[in-house]
Design a protein that fits this description.
The strands form three sheets. An eight-stranded mixed sheet has the order 7-6-8-3-9-10-4-11, with helices on both faces. Strands 1-2 form a two-stranded antiparallel sheet. Strands 5-12 form a two-stranded parallel sheet. It has one domain: 3-Layer(aba) Sandwich (Alkaline Phosphatase, subunit A), CATH 3.40.720. The chain is globular. It has 326 residues and is an alpha/beta fold. Helix 7 runs antiparallel to helix 8.
Amino acid sequence: MPTPTGFPSHTPTITLTPSATKTPTITPTFTATFTPAPTLTPSATPKPAKADIKRAVIISFDGMRPDAIEQAPMPNLMELMAGSAYAPLTARTIDYPATSPSHASMLTGYCMEDHGVIYNKFFMYMGYAKGTDVFQLAHEAGLRTVMVVSKDKMRQMAEPETTDVFEVAYGEPAIQKAVLPQIEQDFGLMFVHFAGPDNRGHKYDWMSGEYLKVLREGDAVLGEMIKTLKAEGMFDTTFFLVSADHGGHGGNHIGTTIEDYRIPWIAYGPGVVPQILDLQIYTFDTAATVAYALGLPIQPDWDGIPVYKIFGEDQLRIHEKYPCKT
């Protein structure tokens, strides 16, 4: 009979001793071989790197001042900030701090005189923002592109053929209803725009109770977006860039104080090194940074510069001065 695997082998030796009963005596001999078990060393889970980024979402809270985040408060955004690279004081919009021109710079990477969106309203005859914007690059690379906005004039920011989905949703509940199914279908580049802070700021004043309340409502939608990304197994491969088109004071943002120009700029995701950024950042750097995060080609004529520093890399270029004429 063969020896069962895993048991010690034994070879019996039979010795015959003369006796009255002539009963054989069996003396077993055992040979055991023991192999020590390997020592198991638990390996640390590799930290996600920039190369792990599969999608990016740009979130704009229209008219949100950086100092409103904690005052509101916005707990979901603050949780992202705890692991993010963000600029609390050194990010600003263009010299014309209005919704359409500023968002055009945010998404195209150009100054206002280059993208041509010089009015804060949109009629079809005006056409679309000029130049190669980040949505065009993403679409040409085969990424699914989505825009969910709460002002219809945001259509001017990117040409229709570069956005697979463009949906206007008025109010935070409507934005949530529109954006969550798009996350579940996956995407390559998404832009989500909350108009509430700007609307409430004009009606009730910036930093008023109503202004802060709508920021909390938008933050709740952000929380649902994060929850959905996690449920779909996509959160750890998603790059976030949260910002605004302008700030505001009193009931307007006409550019008379720094609060009108200063914007939040928060980057979170694979490879991002948590830090406070103290270099000068402009809103057109958003397009360049998102393109770099997604591995898309940086356009040589862009006024925006990728903020390489968020990934722990050398900042190859900086803004020595404001590059725009207007």
